[in-house]
Amino acid sequence: MKGWNFVAASPGNSDPMDDHTHQEDQYGECIPSGITYHGTHTSGIIGAVGNNEIGISGVCWNVKIMPIKAFNYCGQSSNSILINAIDYATNNGAFLTSNSYGNFSYSLFVKSAITRAQNKNRLYVVSAGNENVNIDSNTRYPVCYPNGNIIGVMATNQDDTKSDFSNYGQNSVDIAAPGYEIMSLKLGDTVQNMSGTSQAAPFVAGVAALALGVCPGLTYGRIKDLIIDGADYVANLNNKCVADGRLNAYNVLNTLGGDTPPSAPSNLIVYPINWYTIGITWNDNSNNELGFEIQRKDTYRPVYIHDNCADMNSTSTVSYQDTIDTSLLRTYTYRIRAVNRAGVSSFSNAYEYLIPQTAPDAPTDLHGQSPVLEQAVNFYWTNHANNAIYNYLERRIPGETDWEVIATLGYNTDFYMDNYAQAGRTYEYRVRAGNPIGYSSYSNILSVEVIQW
Predict the structure, then answer these.
(1) How far is 175 from 177, CA to CA, in rounded Å?
(2) Which of 101, 106, 116 is nearest to 68 (CA)?
Protein backbone atom coordinates (compact mmCIF):
# COMPACT_ATOMS: atom_id res chain seq x y z
CA MET A 1 0.00 0.00 0.00
CA LYS A 2 1.33 3.44 -0.87
CA GLY A 3 2.07 6.05 1.77
CA TRP A 4 0.17 9.23 2.44
CA ASN A 5 0.74 12.88 3.29
CA PHE A 6 -1.49 13.81 6.24
CA VAL A 7 0.04 17.26 6.61
CA ALA A 8 -0.98 18.82 3.32
CA ALA A 9 -2.85 16.18 1.36
CA SER A 10 -5.27 17.35 -1.31
CA PRO A 11 -7.15 15.54 -4.07
CA GLY A 12 -4.54 14.10 -6.39
CA ASN A 13 -1.66 15.21 -4.15
CA SER A 14 -0.90 12.86 -1.28
CA ASP A 15 2.86 12.65 -1.87
CA PRO A 16 4.61 11.96 1.48
CA MET A 17 8.04 13.12 0.25
CA ASP A 18 10.31 14.29 3.06
CA ASP A 19 10.63 18.10 3.14
CA HIS A 20 12.09 18.51 6.63
CA THR A 21 14.50 21.45 6.27
CA HIS A 22 13.67 23.65 9.29
CA GLN A 23 13.28 23.45 13.05
CA GLU A 24 11.68 25.48 15.83
CA ASP A 25 13.96 27.83 17.75
CA GLN A 26 13.54 28.72 21.43
CA TYR A 27 10.89 31.28 20.53
CA GLY A 28 8.80 28.86 18.48
CA GLU A 29 9.94 30.36 15.20
CA CYS A 30 10.64 28.02 12.29
CA ILE A 31 14.21 28.56 11.09
CA PRO A 32 16.51 26.74 8.63
CA SER A 33 18.29 23.77 10.18
CA GLY A 34 21.50 21.93 9.44
CA ILE A 35 19.90 18.71 10.68
CA THR A 36 17.48 17.89 7.89
CA TYR A 37 15.42 15.10 6.36
CA HIS A 38 14.73 13.29 9.60
CA GLY A 39 12.31 10.76 8.06
CA THR A 40 14.69 9.90 5.24
CA HIS A 41 17.49 9.33 7.73
CA THR A 42 15.47 7.00 9.97
CA SER A 43 14.07 5.12 6.96
CA GLY A 44 17.59 4.47 5.75
CA ILE A 45 18.52 2.93 9.08
CA ILE A 46 15.62 0.52 8.73
CA GLY A 47 15.92 -0.53 5.13
CA ALA A 48 18.68 0.97 2.99
CA VAL A 49 19.83 -1.78 0.62
CA GLY A 50 23.35 -3.01 1.40
CA ASN A 51 26.22 -4.57 -0.53
CA ASN A 52 25.63 -2.31 -3.53
CA GLU A 53 28.43 0.26 -3.06
CA ILE A 54 25.83 3.02 -2.68
CA GLY A 55 25.39 5.10 0.47
CA ILE A 56 24.92 3.02 3.62
CA SER A 57 23.47 -0.34 4.65
CA GLY A 58 20.26 -0.51 6.63
CA VAL A 59 19.22 -3.27 9.00
CA CYS A 60 16.68 -5.03 6.78
CA TRP A 61 17.60 -4.92 3.09
CA ASN A 62 14.44 -6.53 1.76
CA VAL A 63 11.68 -4.50 3.34
CA LYS A 64 8.74 -2.44 2.09
CA ILE A 65 8.40 0.93 3.80
CA MET A 66 5.07 2.76 3.84
CA PRO A 67 6.07 6.46 4.14
CA ILE A 68 3.49 8.38 6.11
CA LYS A 69 4.01 12.12 6.44
CA ALA A 70 2.72 13.33 9.80
CA PHE A 71 5.10 16.27 10.40
CA ASN A 72 5.60 19.44 8.37
CA TYR A 73 8.86 20.87 7.07
CA CYS A 74 9.58 22.29 10.54
CA GLY A 75 8.93 19.06 12.42
CA GLN A 76 5.52 20.16 13.70
CA SER A 77 2.39 18.01 13.90
CA SER A 78 -0.88 17.68 15.82
CA ASN A 79 -2.74 14.93 17.61
CA SER A 80 -5.36 14.72 14.86
CA ILE A 81 -2.68 14.25 12.21
CA LEU A 82 -0.92 11.59 14.28
CA ILE A 83 -4.19 9.72 14.83
CA ASN A 84 -4.91 9.69 11.10
CA ALA A 85 -1.37 8.52 10.36
CA ILE A 86 -1.45 5.69 12.91
CA ASP A 87 -4.87 4.50 11.77
CA TYR A 88 -3.79 4.62 8.14
CA ALA A 89 -0.85 2.32 8.84
CA THR A 90 -3.03 -0.01 10.91
CA ASN A 91 -5.78 -0.24 8.32
CA ASN A 92 -3.57 -0.64 5.29
CA GLY A 93 -1.42 -3.60 6.21
CA ALA A 94 1.72 -2.17 7.86
CA PHE A 95 3.23 -4.88 10.09
CA LEU A 96 4.74 -2.29 12.45
CA THR A 97 5.47 1.41 12.74
CA SER A 98 8.68 3.22 13.65
CA ASN A 99 7.93 6.40 15.59
CA SER A 100 10.77 8.82 16.24
CA TYR A 101 8.87 11.65 17.92
CA GLY A 102 7.24 12.60 21.21
CA ASN A 103 6.65 15.18 23.91
CA PHE A 104 5.38 15.38 27.47
CA SER A 105 1.69 15.87 26.60
CA TYR A 106 -0.79 13.03 27.15
CA SER A 107 -3.50 12.43 24.56
CA LEU A 108 -6.26 9.90 25.15
CA PHE A 109 -7.08 9.99 21.44
CA VAL A 110 -3.53 9.17 20.33
CA LYS A 111 -3.43 6.41 22.92
CA SER A 112 -6.69 5.04 21.48
CA ALA A 113 -5.15 4.97 17.99
CA ILE A 114 -2.22 2.98 19.38
CA THR A 115 -4.73 0.64 21.03
CA ARG A 116 -6.40 0.09 17.67
CA ALA A 117 -2.98 -0.82 16.29
CA GLN A 118 -2.47 -3.16 19.24
CA ASN A 119 -5.77 -4.89 18.52
CA LYS A 120 -4.37 -5.64 15.05
CA ASN A 121 -1.06 -6.91 16.51
CA ARG A 122 0.96 -3.97 15.19
CA LEU A 123 4.24 -3.37 17.01
CA TYR A 124 4.71 0.33 17.83
CA VAL A 125 8.42 1.11 18.09
CA VAL A 126 9.03 4.54 19.62
CA SER A 127 12.00 6.69 20.66
CA ALA A 128 12.46 7.47 24.34
CA GLY A 129 13.36 11.15 23.77
CA ASN A 130 16.45 13.30 24.12
CA GLU A 131 16.02 15.29 27.35
CA ASN A 132 18.36 13.10 29.48
CA VAL A 133 15.64 12.43 32.06
CA ASN A 134 14.20 9.36 33.74
CA ILE A 135 10.82 9.03 32.07
CA ASP A 136 9.59 6.67 34.77
CA SER A 137 9.00 9.86 36.75
CA ASN A 138 8.96 12.41 33.91
CA THR A 139 6.44 10.72 31.69
CA ARG A 140 6.92 11.27 27.97
CA TYR A 141 4.55 10.21 25.22
CA PRO A 142 3.96 8.11 23.25
CA VAL A 143 6.66 5.97 24.85
CA CYS A 144 4.98 6.03 28.29
CA TYR A 145 1.49 5.01 27.22
CA PRO A 146 0.72 1.66 28.89
CA ASN A 147 -0.06 -0.15 25.63
CA GLY A 148 1.57 -3.56 25.41
CA ASN A 149 2.52 -3.13 21.75
CA ILE A 150 4.83 -0.18 22.50
CA ILE A 151 8.54 -0.89 22.65
CA GLY A 152 10.51 2.13 23.87
CA VAL A 153 14.10 2.64 22.74
CA MET A 154 16.93 4.63 24.33
CA ALA A 155 20.23 5.55 22.63
CA THR A 156 23.79 4.34 23.20
CA ASN A 157 27.24 5.44 22.08
CA GLN A 158 29.81 3.31 20.27
CA ASP A 159 31.07 1.94 23.62
CA ASP A 160 27.56 0.86 24.73
CA THR A 161 27.26 3.63 27.31
CA LYS A 162 24.08 5.67 27.47
CA SER A 163 24.22 8.65 25.15
CA ASP A 164 24.35 11.85 27.17
CA PHE A 165 21.11 13.15 25.64
CA SER A 166 19.08 9.95 25.89
CA ASN A 167 16.12 9.52 28.17
CA TYR A 168 15.94 6.30 30.14
CA GLY A 169 13.66 4.43 32.52
CA GLN A 170 13.81 1.03 34.14
CA ASN A 171 10.09 0.54 33.53
CA SER A 172 9.24 2.89 30.66
CA VAL A 173 12.07 2.10 28.25
CA ASP A 174 12.45 -1.44 26.94
CA ILE A 175 15.83 -1.61 25.24
CA ALA A 176 18.81 0.40 24.03
CA ALA A 177 20.15 0.68 20.48
CA PRO A 178 22.88 2.72 18.76
CA GLY A 179 21.92 6.38 18.52
CA TYR A 180 25.10 8.46 18.42
CA GLU A 181 26.65 9.77 15.18
CA ILE A 182 24.67 7.39 13.01
CA MET A 183 25.33 7.70 9.29
CA SER A 184 22.26 7.29 7.13
CA LEU A 185 20.49 8.76 4.12
CA LYS A 186 19.80 12.38 3.30
CA LEU A 187 17.49 13.48 0.52
CA GLY A 188 19.53 14.11 -2.64
CA ASP A 189 21.66 10.98 -3.04
CA THR A 190 23.86 11.76 -0.08
CA VAL A 191 24.35 10.79 3.57
CA GLN A 192 24.65 12.57 6.90
CA ASN A 193 25.38 11.78 10.55
CA MET A 194 22.62 12.33 13.10
CA SER A 195 22.30 11.51 16.80
CA GLY A 196 19.25 10.86 18.92
CA THR A 197 16.85 8.27 20.17
CA SER A 198 15.19 8.96 16.81
CA GLN A 199 18.11 7.05 15.32
CA ALA A 200 17.98 4.27 17.92
CA ALA A 201 14.30 3.39 17.39
CA PRO A 202 14.63 2.43 13.69
CA PHE A 203 17.37 -0.05 14.54
CA VAL A 204 14.81 -1.90 16.65
CA ALA A 205 12.15 -1.50 13.95
CA GLY A 206 14.57 -2.93 11.41
CA VAL A 207 15.30 -5.98 13.55
CA ALA A 208 11.56 -6.50 14.08
CA ALA A 209 11.13 -6.32 10.31
CA LEU A 210 13.83 -8.99 9.89
CA ALA A 211 11.95 -11.29 12.28
CA LEU A 212 8.62 -10.61 10.57
CA GLY A 213 10.21 -11.26 7.19
CA VAL A 214 11.05 -14.76 8.40
CA CYS A 215 7.83 -15.28 10.39
CA PRO A 216 5.09 -12.85 9.25
CA GLY A 217 2.65 -14.33 11.77
CA LEU A 218 4.49 -13.24 14.91
CA THR A 219 2.31 -11.32 17.34
CA TYR A 220 3.54 -8.01 18.76
CA GLY A 221 4.02 -9.65 22.15
CA ARG A 222 6.22 -12.41 20.76
CA ILE A 223 8.36 -9.97 18.75
CA LYS A 224 8.72 -7.66 21.74
CA ASP A 225 9.79 -10.55 23.98
CA LEU A 226 12.31 -11.76 21.38
CA ILE A 227 13.86 -8.30 21.15
CA ILE A 228 14.05 -7.69 24.91
CA ASP A 229 15.17 -11.22 25.82
CA GLY A 230 17.76 -11.20 23.03
CA ALA A 231 19.50 -8.02 24.20
CA ASP A 232 23.18 -8.12 25.16
CA TYR A 233 23.52 -7.28 28.84
CA VAL A 234 25.50 -4.08 29.36
CA ALA A 235 26.48 -3.08 32.90
CA ASN A 236 26.27 0.62 32.01
CA LEU A 237 22.63 0.11 31.06
CA ASN A 238 21.63 -1.70 34.22
CA ASN A 239 18.36 -0.23 35.58
CA LYS A 240 18.19 2.12 32.60
CA CYS A 241 15.74 -0.04 30.63
CA VAL A 242 13.79 -3.29 30.94
CA ALA A 243 16.36 -5.31 28.98
CA ASP A 244 19.35 -3.86 30.87
CA GLY A 245 21.09 -4.07 27.54
CA ARG A 246 21.55 -3.27 23.88
CA LEU A 247 19.80 -4.69 20.83
CA ASN A 248 21.26 -7.84 19.24
CA ALA A 249 19.75 -8.79 15.88
CA TYR A 250 21.45 -12.19 15.74
CA ASN A 251 19.96 -13.28 19.05
CA VAL A 252 16.46 -12.30 17.94
CA LEU A 253 16.64 -14.26 14.69
CA ASN A 254 18.52 -17.22 16.19
CA THR A 255 15.77 -17.73 18.78
CA LEU A 256 13.15 -18.34 16.10
CA GLY A 257 12.41 -22.05 15.91
CA GLY A 258 11.35 -24.53 13.26
CA ASP A 259 13.30 -27.15 11.29
CA THR A 260 10.57 -27.78 8.73
CA PRO A 261 7.84 -25.45 7.49
CA PRO A 262 4.44 -25.90 9.16
CA SER A 263 1.48 -27.50 7.41
CA ALA A 264 -1.25 -25.29 5.98
CA PRO A 265 -4.33 -24.50 8.10
CA SER A 266 -7.63 -25.81 6.76
CA ASN A 267 -11.40 -25.58 7.21
CA LEU A 268 -11.38 -21.80 7.58
CA ILE A 269 -14.86 -20.56 8.58
CA VAL A 270 -16.09 -16.97 9.09
CA TYR A 271 -19.25 -16.13 11.05
CA PRO A 272 -20.89 -13.05 12.65
CA ILE A 273 -20.50 -12.29 16.36
CA ASN A 274 -22.04 -8.81 16.38
CA TRP A 275 -22.48 -5.83 14.11
CA TYR A 276 -18.81 -4.83 14.26
CA THR A 277 -17.15 -8.17 14.93
CA ILE A 278 -16.82 -11.42 13.06
CA GLY A 279 -15.34 -14.67 14.28
CA ILE A 280 -12.89 -16.84 12.38
CA THR A 281 -11.94 -20.43 13.13
CA TRP A 282 -9.61 -22.83 11.37
CA ASN A 283 -7.98 -26.20 11.89
CA ASP A 284 -4.38 -26.07 13.04
CA ASN A 285 -2.63 -28.89 11.20
CA SER A 286 0.83 -28.25 12.65
CA ASN A 287 2.58 -28.55 15.98
CA ASN A 288 5.62 -26.47 15.03
CA GLU A 289 4.20 -23.09 14.04
CA LEU A 290 5.31 -19.86 15.72
CA GLY A 291 2.15 -18.05 14.70
CA PHE A 292 -0.41 -17.47 11.97
CA GLU A 293 -0.70 -14.62 9.50
CA ILE A 294 -4.26 -13.53 8.74
CA GLN A 295 -4.76 -11.82 5.39
CA ARG A 296 -7.90 -10.03 4.23
CA LYS A 297 -9.30 -8.34 1.15
CA ASP A 298 -12.67 -6.77 0.45
CA THR A 299 -14.87 -5.41 -2.29
CA TYR A 300 -13.05 -2.07 -2.31
CA ARG A 301 -9.54 -3.55 -1.91
CA PRO A 302 -9.34 -6.52 -4.29
CA VAL A 303 -5.87 -7.66 -3.17
CA TYR A 304 -4.98 -9.35 0.11
CA ILE A 305 -3.19 -7.31 2.77
CA HIS A 306 -1.76 -8.25 6.15
CA ASP A 307 -4.66 -7.94 8.59
CA ASN A 308 -3.56 -9.51 11.88
CA CYS A 309 -1.64 -12.32 13.57
CA ALA A 310 -2.62 -15.17 15.85
CA ASP A 311 -0.17 -16.73 18.26
CA MET A 312 1.09 -20.30 18.11
CA ASN A 313 -1.53 -22.78 19.23
CA SER A 314 -1.37 -26.13 21.01
CA THR A 315 -4.89 -27.30 20.11
CA SER A 316 -6.40 -28.58 16.89
CA THR A 317 -8.53 -25.49 16.24
CA VAL A 318 -7.82 -21.76 16.43
CA SER A 319 -10.28 -18.91 17.01
CA TYR A 320 -9.86 -15.24 16.20
CA GLN A 321 -12.06 -12.14 16.11
CA ASP A 322 -11.83 -9.31 13.60
CA THR A 323 -13.35 -5.83 13.77
CA ILE A 324 -14.87 -4.76 10.47
CA ASP A 325 -16.15 -1.56 8.87
CA THR A 326 -19.91 -1.83 8.44
CA SER A 327 -20.40 1.62 6.91
CA LEU A 328 -20.51 0.19 3.38
CA LEU A 329 -21.93 -2.97 1.92
CA ARG A 330 -18.89 -5.09 1.21
CA THR A 331 -17.65 -8.66 1.11
CA TYR A 332 -14.61 -9.57 3.19
CA THR A 333 -12.43 -12.51 2.17
CA TYR A 334 -9.95 -14.15 4.53
CA ARG A 335 -7.11 -16.64 4.26
CA ILE A 336 -4.61 -17.91 6.84
CA ARG A 337 -1.09 -19.34 6.78
CA ALA A 338 1.16 -20.77 9.47
CA VAL A 339 4.79 -19.66 9.93
CA ASN A 340 8.05 -20.61 11.58
CA ARG A 341 11.74 -20.01 10.90
CA ALA A 342 11.93 -22.77 8.30
CA GLY A 343 9.25 -21.16 6.15
CA VAL A 344 5.60 -20.36 5.71
CA SER A 345 2.86 -22.81 4.83
CA SER A 346 0.60 -22.50 1.85
CA PHE A 347 -2.64 -20.64 2.51
CA SER A 348 -5.80 -22.16 3.87
CA ASN A 349 -9.00 -22.11 1.91
CA ALA A 350 -10.39 -18.61 1.36
CA TYR A 351 -13.72 -17.71 2.96
CA GLU A 352 -16.00 -14.86 1.91
CA TYR A 353 -18.23 -13.01 4.36
CA LEU A 354 -20.89 -10.49 3.35
CA ILE A 355 -21.85 -7.89 5.94
CA PRO A 356 -25.55 -8.44 6.74
CA GLN A 357 -27.35 -5.28 5.65
CA THR A 358 -30.58 -6.12 7.46
CA ALA A 359 -32.36 -5.01 10.60
CA PRO A 360 -31.77 -7.29 13.60
CA ASP A 361 -34.05 -10.04 14.84
CA ALA A 362 -36.33 -9.19 17.77
CA PRO A 363 -35.64 -10.12 21.38
CA THR A 364 -38.10 -12.57 22.93
CA ASP A 365 -39.26 -13.95 26.27
CA LEU A 366 -39.37 -10.64 28.13
CA HIS A 367 -40.24 -11.50 31.73
CA GLY A 368 -39.69 -10.12 35.22
CA GLN A 369 -41.20 -8.92 38.46
CA SER A 370 -41.09 -6.33 41.19
CA PRO A 371 -38.96 -7.77 44.01
CA VAL A 372 -40.45 -8.17 47.47
CA LEU A 373 -39.96 -5.10 49.66
CA GLU A 374 -38.32 -3.17 46.79
CA GLN A 375 -39.64 -0.26 44.74
CA ALA A 376 -38.14 -1.49 41.45
CA VAL A 377 -38.74 -3.84 38.52
CA ASN A 378 -36.25 -6.49 37.44
CA PHE A 379 -36.69 -8.07 34.03
CA TYR A 380 -34.89 -10.29 31.53
CA TRP A 381 -35.15 -11.23 27.86
CA THR A 382 -33.46 -13.39 25.20
CA ASN A 383 -31.42 -11.81 22.39
CA HIS A 384 -31.48 -13.40 18.94
CA ALA A 385 -29.62 -10.86 16.77
CA ASN A 386 -25.94 -11.04 15.89
CA ASN A 387 -26.10 -7.83 13.86
CA ALA A 388 -27.54 -5.50 16.50
CA ILE A 389 -25.70 -2.63 18.13
CA TYR A 390 -28.18 -1.65 20.84
CA ASN A 391 -31.24 -2.84 22.71
CA TYR A 392 -33.82 -0.14 23.36
CA LEU A 393 -36.00 -0.61 26.44
CA GLU A 394 -39.35 1.17 26.49
CA ARG A 395 -41.95 1.74 29.23
CA ARG A 396 -45.42 3.18 29.59
CA ILE A 397 -48.23 3.45 32.14
CA PRO A 398 -51.26 2.00 30.33
CA GLY A 399 -53.89 4.65 29.65
CA GLU A 400 -51.72 7.46 31.08
CA THR A 401 -48.42 7.78 29.19
CA ASP A 402 -47.03 6.97 25.77
CA TRP A 403 -44.18 4.56 25.21
CA GLU A 404 -40.79 6.12 25.95
CA VAL A 405 -37.21 4.79 25.81
CA ILE A 406 -35.93 4.50 29.36
CA ALA A 407 -32.62 2.77 28.57
CA THR A 408 -30.29 2.23 25.59
CA LEU A 409 -28.31 -0.91 26.27
CA GLY A 410 -25.56 -2.92 24.58
CA TYR A 411 -26.45 -5.48 21.93
CA ASN A 412 -25.74 -8.40 24.28
CA THR A 413 -27.39 -7.00 27.43
CA ASP A 414 -30.30 -9.17 28.56
CA PHE A 415 -31.14 -7.72 32.00
CA TYR A 416 -32.27 -4.39 33.39
CA MET A 417 -33.48 -2.99 36.74
CA ASP A 418 -35.93 -0.11 36.62
CA ASN A 419 -35.24 1.75 39.85
CA TYR A 420 -37.60 4.60 39.00
CA ALA A 421 -40.84 2.62 39.07
CA GLN A 422 -43.32 4.07 41.57
CA ALA A 423 -45.13 1.99 44.14
CA GLY A 424 -48.78 1.40 43.42
CA ARG A 425 -48.36 1.76 39.66
CA THR A 426 -48.68 -0.81 36.90
CA TYR A 427 -46.13 -0.53 34.10
CA GLU A 428 -45.76 -2.13 30.68
CA TYR A 429 -42.35 -2.83 29.16
CA ARG A 430 -41.07 -3.89 25.76
CA VAL A 431 -37.63 -4.13 24.12
CA ARG A 432 -36.32 -4.09 20.57
CA ALA A 433 -32.89 -4.27 18.93
CA GLY A 434 -31.41 -1.79 16.48
CA ASN A 435 -28.54 -1.14 14.08
CA PRO A 436 -27.90 1.51 11.40
CA ILE A 437 -30.16 -0.37 8.98
CA GLY A 438 -33.18 -0.22 11.26
CA TYR A 439 -35.04 -1.68 14.23
CA SER A 440 -36.31 -5.13 14.98
CA SER A 441 -39.93 -5.72 15.82
CA TYR A 442 -40.79 -5.50 19.51
CA SER A 443 -40.60 -8.27 22.03
CA ASN A 444 -43.68 -9.37 23.90
CA ILE A 445 -45.10 -6.76 26.31
CA LEU A 446 -44.48 -7.35 30.01
CA SER A 447 -46.96 -5.93 32.53
CA VAL A 448 -45.73 -5.49 36.11
CA GLU A 449 -47.48 -4.03 39.18
CA VAL A 450 -45.18 -2.35 41.69
CA ILE A 451 -46.70 -3.26 45.01
CA GLN A 452 -47.20 -0.66 47.73
CA TRP A 453 -45.44 -2.33 50.67
Answers:
(1) 7
(2) 101
User: For the whole model, what pTM was predicted?
Assistant: 0.87
pLDDT for the residue 415: 95
Q: How far is CA 118 from CA 18, 140, 309, 388, in A?
A: 27, 19, 11, 25
Sorted by sequence, the CB contacts under 8 Å of residue 250 that are 6+ apart come out as none
For residue range 116-138, list pLDDT tens digits in order.
Answer: 999 999 999 999 999 999 999 99
d(C-alpha 406, C-alpha 392), whole Å: 8
β-strand partners of 190: 186
pLDDT in tens, 84-119: 999 999 999 999 999 999 999 999 999 999 999 999
List the domains of the chain with CATH numbers.
Answer: 4-255 (3.40.50.200), 266-354 (2.60.40.10), 364-449 (2.60.40.10)
Tell me 134's DSSP state: B
Q: Is the peptide bond before 363 cis (omega within 30 degrees of 0)?
A: no
